[in-house]
Amino acid sequence: MLCFAVSVLLPACASTTSARVPIDLPDLPASQTQCRLPVMIPDTALNQSQVEKFWIRDRQSLVDCRAQLTGIVNLYEDLDRSLNQAGTAE
After folding, report:
1. CA torsion through residues 45, 48, 54, 58, sign
2. Contact call for residues 73 and 28 (beta carbons, < 8 A)
3. What is the rounded distance in angstroms from the CA atom of residue 5 to the CA atom of residue 9?
4. How far apart are CA 75 and CA 34, in angstroms?
5. DSSP letter for each residue of 35-68
6. Taking the model in full, what pTM does it have?
7. 32-87 pLDDT, tens per residue?
8. How many beta carbons lie within 10 A of that of residue 29, not counting itself?
9. 35 close to 63: Cβ distance less than 8 angstroms
10. Is the dihedral angle over the CA atoms 10, 14, 16, 22 positive or is it negative?
11. How does pLDDT run across 21-35, given as a tens digit for each residue?
12. Are 86 and 23 a contacting pair, CB within 8 Å?
């Protein structure tokens, strides 16, 4: 009885085509694609050493942020592309 049910159902499964719908990921939120605000500089007179310290901290923060964001955006775009290729390949 079980063999009969399997023999009837398997051909039906094999002949159906699966619906391939593209998967559209939403855009990344702005919090994931924008760097933090620049380093806040105190509202007092600064000497050259202090200015350089703030400038270096600010520049390093921007470099680190850009590297991280590039990785996140590339990963997300690759994921989106992979999902859509998998959805259209037969």
Report:
1. positive
2. yes
3. 6
4. 16
5. PPPPPPPPSS---HHHHHHHHHHHHHHHHHHHHH
6. 0.50
7. 778 877 778 889 999 999 999 999 999 998 898 888 888 888 888 898 888 888 65
8. 8
9. no
10. positive
11. 777 888 888 777 788
12. no
